[in-house]
Amino acid sequence: MTGESMSRPSRRTTNPVNSQSTSATEDEDSATTGIQVSMEVATSSSLATFIKKLWIIVNDANLQSLIHWSDAGDVICIPNVTVFSKRVLPKYFKHGNWQSFVRQLNMYGFRRVYSPTPSPLTAHHTRTSAASTWPDQSGPMSMMLRSASSYQFMNENFVRDDSQKLVNIKRKAGSNRQTNAARQQKQQQQQQQQEQQQATDDTESQGQSQSQRGAANHVPISTEVAEQLQERVSHLLEQLTDTEKKLELMQSEAHSIKQIQIQQQQIQLDRCSRRKVHQNISCS
Fold first, then answer.
1. pLDDT higher at 94 or 39
2. Which intervals carry biased composition (Polar residues) (predicted)?
3. What strands, in cross-sheet order, belong to the sheet with 68-69?
């Protein structure tokens, strides 16, 4: 009996309390690390605002039913577009336009991927987020519509366990039309700069020749004197404008007086003509 007990292998007993505490400690460490990484991403000055917000929401534990990582951590899964557009987009992007969100993803190099068999986590979130939308959760039509509303996106530099790659995500260049317009605008600006530089060179050349001719009598003008001269010129221009207005008024009055004189002369001529007619009649 003693020999049998010695030959039996010893059984290791596991304390469930210690196992649970170890698991809880690991979860707390993982959560703390995730929070620290999210804080570093949110405060990074080398990342685009869109990439920061996307990283924050996909790692937010409270939004896992609306957006989450794939099991491998390299794909963003959005189980229900309608619910996501109503609850998440207005909060983080100040709009609820799903197409606009997709365009932004494409601008930063994300592409849509298709998974013929969704992961258990994605399937669970799809059922949860669509529970209030589809009455018949088991019907084939409901399953097809739910699959159509589920989207997955991927970017090789947007990975759950490697936030250091985020700096490699850059916004794509604009379309050819935008590029050509920018190029034409740049050429116009360069041409304007060249013309301005040429005018400046000509002005400097004239100024140098004038300064060489009158260097002996040259007196520098201070800023205060220049301002006074400018005010004087402005005052003279105002006086000139007032004088022109007065001249126009005088011309108008002179024209009116001339018209009155012409009318009076015509009246006198008419009177003389009538007198002559009366005289002729009386003489006859």
1. 94
2. 1-24
3. 68-69, 75-78, 151-154, 111-112
